[in-house]
């Protein structure tokens, strides 16, 4: 008898009815800079490519910057603002301090864009495009980015501390933060797939290795071989807290669906990632994305567009910053 593959219902639905790209804010446009800055995409692409040639880790950092920007008062580039006398910026919030990276790459791209198209392109749009290019140049799928965002003029360290998900939070809490931003459970699973790129500092997952939930033992949901390897990389000493471990060791620098395979094999690095198997709905999605990479690529682009719509400033709101680290006065 011929070998046949049974498709889960979730996959059949997605294949018959692919995820449509979500509706875009009425003032965003895929061709927003077609006349005013026609070479924008190429300028950003070259800037990201050049940065990745210098440091392979930067792709994950640029993707994370966009995520951390959008989850705090919308996609308006507030994460790029330096502290001022009137507000404490987001760069030094707990989820970002000594962790968020890539500011200098965005600044460099902004300088190139300013030379080509002065006071025309927002830092928020550059962030959105840089995140897309980071994925594509790492082997991931392309998606079209709607443009026309303007930059905010304030930042909030408190909002960054409150709104950004933590790697040790429960799935319920993380989902609540997504829903509060207008996203849903599917977006949680899909956007978590960004952890196919990048590294995490040991302090973000060390309790899984030595003292999970105060038990004095490793997290039982973490594969024993993975525990041994990670204990070598992150010994039970404070001095190892900033050591780095790959989020997706089978393909550290490649954007693919192996993140989901890791979860199924109980080798996901972060508690928040492994927690996706704790709920039947999210577990079903994890299994589907691990088996069907096209589904993940299709849905990831759609969720990135959806996330990129959050809280955007358009029209006369906000401004086009000349320098991404400070507002225009």
Explain what you see.
Helix 2 packs across helix 5 (123-136), helix 3 crosses helix 5 and helix 13 (280-291) crosses helix 14. 43% of the residues lie in helices and 2% in strands. The protein has a two-stranded antiparallel sheet. The longest helix is centred in the last third of the chain and has 16 residues, at 293-308. It is mostly helical. The model is unreliable at 1-7 and 9-21 (pLDDT under 50). It is built from 14 helices and 2 strands.
Please give a handful of descriptors for the protein shown.
329 residues; 2 strands; mainly alpha; 14 helices; disordered N terminus; two-stranded antiparallel ribbon
What's the short version?
By secondary structure, the protein is mostly helical. The chain is built from 14 helices and two strands.
Number of strands: 2
Strand content: under 5%
Q: Radius of gyration, Cα only, in angstroms?
A: 20 Å
Helix amount: 40-55%
Largest sheet: 2 strands, antiparallel
Order of helices and strands: HHHHHHHHEHHEHHHH
Distance between the ends: 74 Å
What sort of overall outline do the alpha carbons produce when their principal axes are compared?
globular
Number of helices: 14
Strand order of the largest sheet: 1-2
Find the structural class using helix and strand composition.
mainly alpha
Low-confidence stretches: 1-7, 9-21
Mean pLDDT: 92
Oligomeric form: single chain
């Amino acid at each position: 008898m011929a070998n046949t593959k049974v498709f889960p219902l979730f996959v059949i639905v997605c294949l018959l009815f692919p995820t449509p790209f979500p509706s875009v804010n009425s003032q965003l446009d895929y061709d927003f800079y077609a006349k005013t800055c026609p070479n924008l995409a190429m300028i950003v692409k070259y800037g990201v490519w050049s940065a990745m040639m210098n440091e392979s880790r930067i792709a994950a950092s640029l993707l994370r910057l966009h995520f951390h920007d959008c989850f705090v008062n919308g996609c308006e580039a507030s994460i790029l603002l330096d502290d001022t006398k009137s507000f404490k910026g987001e760069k030094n919030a707990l989820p970002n301090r000594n962790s968020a990276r890539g500011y200098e790459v965005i600044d460099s791209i902004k300088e190139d864009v300013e030379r080509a198209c002065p006071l025309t392109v927002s830092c928020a749009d550059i962030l959105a495009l840089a995140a897309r290019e980071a994925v594509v140049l790492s082997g991931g799928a392309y998606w079209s980015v709607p443009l026309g965002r303007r930059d905010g003029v304030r930042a909030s360290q408190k909002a960054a501390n409150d709104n950004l998900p933590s790697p040790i939070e429960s799935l319920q809490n993380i989902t609540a933060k997504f829903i509060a931003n207008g996203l849903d459970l599917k977006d949680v699973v899909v956007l978590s797939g960004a952890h196919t790129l990048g590294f995490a500092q040991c302090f973000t997952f060390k309790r899984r290795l030595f003292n999970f939930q105060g038990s004095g033992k490793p997290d039982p949901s973490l594969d024993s071989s993975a525990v041994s390897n990670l204990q070598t990389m992150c010994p039970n000493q404070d001095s190892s807290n900033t050591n780095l471990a790959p989020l997706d060791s089978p393909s550290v620098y490649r954007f693919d669906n192996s993140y989901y395979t890791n979860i199924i094999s109980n080798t996901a690095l972060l508690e928040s990632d492994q927690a996706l198997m704790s709920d039947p709905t999210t577990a079903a999605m994890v299994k589907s994305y691990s088996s069907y990479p096209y589904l993940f690529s299709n849905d990831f682009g759609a969720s990135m567009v959806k996330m990129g719509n959050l809280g955007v400033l358009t029209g006369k709101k906000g401004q086009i910053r000349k320098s991404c680290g400070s507002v225009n006065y």
